[in-house]
Amino acid sequence: MKSPSLTELQVLFGYGIRKHEYKRARKAIYDRKPRQAYSNAQLERLEEEFKADKYLSVNKRIDLANTLKLTETQIKTWFQNRRTKWKKQMTSTLKEFYKHSLLNPTATVSSMIPAPAVQPIVFPFINQSSLASSLYEPTTIEAQTQPNERI
Known about the structure:
By secondary structure, the protein is mainly α. It has seven helices and no strands.
């Protein structure tokens, strides 16, 4: 007996079935603008802005469009696509960490996640080493509570 194909399995279990059997009308190729090829300088500036902030204000988008000689729509689209790529990268990193942590229970988050692009804020009036150690040391409720005293 022949095993069912992927399409047959999808139909059997209800996956991949469209509610309506029509395709979305696409613009004709000749109506569309050609794909934008960004220069290295444009890409570097866009990446720099993306690292600083994942979302642009309208004023920042206008300024960036004028500076890079691109349209606002191109800037907006680039940021939308870059956020999608960033989210996929983060999801992939988290999946890798999860898979790695299942195989190696002593794995740490810092061993899997790349260093941040932005340096962390350091407050000079807080002892950073004691703060960091207190965040990661396990504590028990018994160690934090005091015995009841009678009055």
